[in-house]
Design a protein that fits this description.
This protein is an alpha+beta fold. It has eight helices and eight strands; from the N terminus they run H-E-E-E-E-E-E-H-E-E-H-H-H-H-H-H. A four-stranded antiparallel β-sheet has the order 1-8-3-6. A four-stranded antiparallel β-sheet has the order 2-7-4-5. The chain starts with 9 loop residues before the first helix and ends with a helix. Pfam families: cNMP_binding (PF00027).
């Protein structure tokens, strides 16, 4: 959501630090579900160490990974968190993970305090445009690029995902089966 931008905006970092007493540090095992589809998000999470994924289940029960989160990323099911509606997503750890979580009421309080900052609008515009650009690029790539092109983009732009995320989740993220992803990898390996 926004705290992972704290290094870009010093006042955001200072405010986050003033909420240290309300932040709960949690050590979680792999495959721990932080939020289930249908639940209402009550916490904002900041990842200290580990990998988390957001996914949804299709009507046929198939899991579709929509995003991965790593160290220094912040997350919640944004719509659920902000509008108090049921989450469309599951949020789950993929490896042993350490997070700091802040309850919703404290996050909203922090927002209110941020509004007093002279650079508040700059922060809002930067953060939301950055996220919008990221999601729009993902959406356009999914519509325009072949699975092989999407995999090549992943190799080029976010190789850390390939190093830390199991192949079947990467396949789900790319919209292909694990078998198809294996074929793509073999084909690309044959080129080099």
């Amino acid at each position: 959501m926004f705290i992972h931008y704290k290094n870009k905006f010093p006042e955001l970092s200072k405010l986050w630090d003033t909420y240290e007493g309300f932040q709960e540090k949690i050590h979680l095992p792999a495959k721990h579900v932080l939020l289930r589809e249908g639940e209402t998000a009550k916490y904002y999470y900041y990842i200290q160490k580990g990998v988390v994924r957001a996914y949804l289940r299709t009507n046929t029960g198939e899991e579709k990974t929509v995003q991965f989160f790593f160290e220094t990323d912040g997350l919640s099911s944004f719509e659920s968190f902000m509008r108090a509606v049921p989450s469309a997503f599951y949020v789950e750890t993929l490896e042993p993970t350490e997070v700091t979580r802040l309850p919703k009421e404290k996050v909203l309080e922090l927002f209110e305090r941020l509004k007093a900052s002279p650079s508040f609008m700059d922060m809002v515009i930067y953060i939301f445009s950055d996220r919008q650009i990221h999601y729009m690029n993902e959406f356009v790539s999914f519509l325009k690029d072949s699975p092989t092109e999407r995999f090549e983009n992943l190799i080029r732009e976010r190789p850390h995902i390939l190093q830390r995320v199991p192949q079947h989740y990467i396949a789900s993220y790319l919209g292909v089966s694990s078998v198809h992803l294996s074929r793509i990898k073999a084909k690309l390996a044959g080129k080099h």
